[in-house]
Amino acid sequence: MSDNKSSDGTVPVQPEPEVLLTTPLHELHVELGAKMVPFAGYDMPVQYPLGILKEHLHTRAAAGLFDVSHMGQVRLTGDNPAAALETLVPGEIQALARCRMRYSLFTNDQGGILDDLMISNMGNHLFLVVNAGCKVADVEHLRSRLAGKVEVEYLADHALLALQGPMAAEVLSRFVPTARTMKFMTVLEANFRGVPVLITRSGYTGEDGYEISVSNACADITARLLLAEEEVEAIGLGARDSLRLEAGLCLYGHDIDTTTTPVEANLNWVIGKRRRVEGGFPGASVILDQLANGTSRKRVGIRPDGRAPAREHTPVTDLSGAALGEVTSGGFGPSVNGPVAMGYVATSAAAPGTPVNLVVRGKPMPAKVAEMPFVPQRYYRG
Predict the structure, then answer these.
(1) Residue 367 to residues 191, 210, 244, 324, 353, Cα–Cα distance (Å)
(2) What string of pLDDT tens digits covers the 382 residues of the chain?
(3) 313 Cβ partners below 8 Å, 6+ apart?
(4) Which residues, including other chains, have CB under 8 Å from residue 85's CB and lie 6 or more apart?
(5) pTM value?
(6) CB 337: neighbour CB atoms within 10 A?
(7) Whose CA is closest to 88, among 71, 104, 102, 73?
(8) 200-239 exposure pattern, b = at least 16 Cβ within 10 A, e = fewer
């Protein structure tokens, strides 16, 4: 078992291509019979013996436990870390109340997206969760751009668990009673059977649920206690991907990246009202111009006809065969019992219900532009 930190514990380790890092739950995954695969430099469980389809449906019906310890956890401290962070993201961070959290984006000077992240106001510091594949670059970005303004601490000694599903509140409240009354996108510092944890009511499945930050040393026992509850099953990255796709949620490096802007990605809502007036974040001139004047393409949902899924990079055309864009994520949606996808198409074809063709193995496959999410959201809002 490895906690994968550097010699001084202050920066994330960038693994050599042939060396896979492990999370503090690696031995548990192997014990549970998980199929392990390389993901973002880590040896991660893609599925357990239950299988991706049943894991997906179990999360929608009860509660699933995910190991997301490969994600990066970062603490920002200083005189005004919220003001400092606003120079890197388009969200209103200074207006974020204590024990509240917000989704935002790191943008570059061209308006492209460097990463998406969660930001929590802990009162005397900000707590960030960033993507696994971007965390090395994100920490360097924070340190280089905010030098002298904030201290950037990478929390190498903490794991992250996600408990997701309609029974998540019932399960977690047996260990942390006050978790039941948390509102969506709030934060709670608590004890889990004597173990200090940081709980957010959030997740990336479209379901109600929580993410639990816990020390590496206590991650295994915390996971085992949750898995011992009748409603909970271990869930791998395969079902995590199909769940977030049905919920219409972006995967960095696929649906958003440095070549896409927040406006093109249909993420206008992350740009705070004050920030739309003041700017002051990387790429503001590009992004604010797109808000005012529109863009040539938009991220949309796509529902293929029939049963065949459309995978990433599948071309999208109009009915005459003219190129419109391409699929960025696609697969079978177990909850809707059919294929679902998302991607970018010309704005002229972005209206829900627009008929399009997906070019699969050189042949056109009928589909329609669709609204997202593909399943009802069940976020708990209090």
Answers:
(1) 49, 35, 21, 13, 9
(2) 334 444 344 556 555 557 899 999 999 999 999 999 999 999 999 999 999 999 999 999 999 999 999 999 999 999 999 999 999 999 999 999 999 999 999 999 999 999 999 999 999 999 999 999 999 999 999 999 999 999 999 999 999 999 999 999 999 999 999 999 999 999 999 999 999 999 999 999 999 999 999 999 999 999 999 999 999 999 999 999 999 999 999 999 999 999 999 999 999 999 999 999 999 999 999 999 999 999 999 999 999 999 999 999 999 999 999 999 999 999 999 999 999 999 999 999 999 999 999 999 999 999 999 999 999 988 755 4
(3) 326, 327
(4) 76, 93, 119, 126, 146, 150
(5) 0.94
(6) 8
(7) 104
(8) bbbbbbbbbbbbbbbbbebbbebbeebeebebbbbbbbbb
* Two tokens, residue 350: 């972005």
